[in-house]
């Protein structure tokens, strides 16, 4: 059941024997899982990687969506040269993408799949359904959705935001069986196709990129859309300037997450961010990047889709087929009747929601104070020996760059170096 694709470069484990030769298991084959696996394989560490290649980008984003990041901020990481998005485009005879070309999700999926073939090798598409401590001898017991089980020396959790979608309680009560595409309320991650909402009245709750891009796509599909934003105004990214003066570059240095000193600092120094006192780190994590829409999306929303700002959903009720929303809009009460509510209300980094980790495993790691995310060592290891976390779950420890593909370079090299050393020492 391995995903060995034609044209794949053979990747060999180079004689490393960890805990009695047991592999490291990487759970998840998105940007972080693929990058970590590429570094582990290059370091000669035996590794098994599970999950669908670029699964979230195939199944948790609506058709027609674009990345908010610029092309130079979405390279996956490998210690070998030649794995950048620009390399993929050049090899396939596709024109180079510039800061002014939003990247379609479909291009990013093709890039990730190419990266996997070239730098990672076999990926097993099975889903990991349980990670438990091995009953003896240390390490972990990993169970897959097809019933197979294997022992591993260490586990790297790279499951992104899967299972962490957040729907506020006042909306969640509209769907006693759980939110979803067929219920009265759903989360943006439930949809790959928004066209079934043509001719329906949809309230989109949220003011970030997911809310604004979903609203544009719904409108373009023929839905009657309203966006409800808690903040007093919608924030939009700035169109990148091709030539910036020296003074502008000093005043607002560039970084993969945008311009400004705070962003440049958190991108350059995730290791330093980890050493900050926890309250300062949590402040950075919450405040460094507030919700905003990509500059290229503005024309598809402003003056096109009705947006209510300073607007909070106070109560949501159903009459069976539709939804009545009671709103507080700039201190005044209002009512909105719709057919469906789309919650673009983000994700909660909650270790307890990661049900594929058995209760004994997910309950054990020490948390970053003020969060339910794991405290991590400089090598991304939690307080449970051998259990590592990357991507968004590592953001409360290392800062906001870990929420983005741009963090793969830092994370993958660190995780691989740490695992190669610690397993070789056993
Ligand atoms: C709508 C949206 C737009 C975004 N746009 C950007 C952007 O423009 N730029 C950017 O840098 N970031 C963006 N992000 C953030 C983005 O999710 C991350 O940057 C990136 O995908 C993180 O990679 P990852 O590998 O951690 O997670 P993911 O890409 O989510 O990959 C996780 C993988 O784990 C797999 N998986 C989950 N559970 C299991 C299991 N139990 N067993 C096996 N496999 C499992 C999934 O199938 C998936 O393949 C966006 C997020 C969203 C929701």
From TrEMBL:
Keywords, sorted A to Z: Oxidoreductase
Keyword Oxidoreductase in annotation: yes
Residue ranges occupied by any FAD/NAD(P)-binding domain in the UniProt entry: 24-250
InterPro entries linked: Auxin_biosynth/cation_transpt, FAD/NAD-bd_sf, FAD/NAD-binding_dom
SUPFAM superfamilies registered for this protein in UniProt: FAD/NAD(P)-binding domain
Residue ranges crossing the lipid bilayer per the database entry: none
Identification of the protein by name: NAD(P)/FAD-dependent oxidoreductase
Species: Streptomyces cadmiisoli
Lineage, broadest ranks: Bacteria, Bacillati, Actinomycetota, Actinomycetes, Kitasatosporales
